[in-house]
Amino acid sequence: MSAKKLFLLLMFFSGVASAQDEKRALSILDEMSRRYQAYSSFKINFTYAPAGGRPARGEAIVKGQKFRLKMADQEIVTDGKTIATYIPETNEVTLQAYDPQEIGDLSPARIYLAYKKGYKNAFTGETNANGQTFENIRLTPTGSSAPISKVELKIGKQDKAIKGWKVFAKGSDTMNFDVTGFQANPDPADADFTFSKKLFPGAEIVDLR
């Protein structure tokens, strides 16, 4: 076989493998998405850390487009109309009109839908840890203006739940998230997602609505 024919054959099988990886990734992601959409609400506890950094704890409660995200350096609350961002370091709350597109696909209320638009999906293999098997999916933005280069999702093979994800910013920055706890349908009150000065006593309010 000539070198040219061998090259074309390798390219053909590479293309077939790529298509199969995309098809399998889409099947896994669809199952994962259906799982989360079936909940009226859910709560996730997680740890997060930059590459080589010390992990910190976070928590997210989601109810439809409403969510409350608590992290060490910020807290975000939205009722789907107004979004409040609290920065403990400056003791300041910024109020803005809620725009799901501006928040981005990786917000707690949208991460299980991120793959549906603006990303190429690929199955990158299975890994095992602590008696669990994970299916790994890589999401690559299709737009050149995206601030991230890729996202790697770790999904439980048995329950199709998100177990962790890693975000690669353009350049060298990465942020790794690991889910440490999950609660389905905790039934939070709508008031839990509505900004109130009582939530952040003494904080300066900057209203940009």
From TrEMBL:
SUPFAM superfamilies: Prokaryotic lipoproteins and lipoprotein localization factors
Organism per entry: Ravibacter arvi
Xref: PANTHER family: OUTER-MEMBRANE LIPOPROTEIN CARRIER PROTEIN
Domain of life: Bacteria
Residues making up the signal peptide according to the UniProt record: 1-19
Key words, A-Z: Signal
Protein name, UniProt field: Outer membrane lipoprotein carrier protein LolA
InterPro entries per record: LolA/LolB/LppX, OM_lipoprot_carrier_LolA-like
